[in-house]
């Protein structure tokens, strides 16, 4: 596999997973830090490209499972009221 093919593969994978995300008002540094935090524990500075692809899939799956768990908790729990005002209880 030549470098041109590898770069094409990386661009393809990037577009699949993060191509549709809108980073409103985030700086480039903020986006980088956010993306890097997604990979904590899944890669390091010596990760080869082929291993990176595998680890990327694991990171995405992990995020998906976490998101599903949070959705489940949200849908199956009651709201936490922050005041004793009756209008807040009525809005629920």
From TrEMBL:
One of its GO terms (biological process) is regulation of DNA-templated transcription. Keywords: Membrane, Metal-binding, Nucleus, Transmembrane, Transmembrane helix, Zinc, Zinc-finger. InterPro entries: FHY3/FAR1 (IPR031052). Its main location: nucleus. The chain crosses the membrane at residues 6-26. GO terms for cellular component: nucleus. One of its GO terms (molecular function) is zinc ion binding. It is found in: Nucleus. Putative transcription activator involved in regulating light control of development. Belongs to the FHY3/FAR1 family. This is Protein FAR1-RELATED SEQUENCE. The lineage of its organism: Eukaryota, Viridiplantae, Streptophyta, Embryophyta, Tracheophyta.
């Amino acid at each position: 596999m030549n470098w041109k093919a590898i770069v094409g593969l990386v661009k393809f994978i990037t577009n699949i997973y993060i191509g549709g995300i809108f980073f409103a008002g985030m700086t480039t540094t903020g986006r980088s830090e956010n993306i890097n935090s997604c990979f904590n524990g899944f890669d390091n500075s010596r990760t080869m490209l082929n291993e990176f692809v595998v680890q990327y899939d694991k990171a995405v799956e992990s995020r998906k499972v976490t998101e599903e768990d949070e959705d489940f908790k949200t849908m199956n729990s009651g709201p936490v009221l922050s005041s004793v005002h009756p209008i807040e209880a009525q809005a629920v």
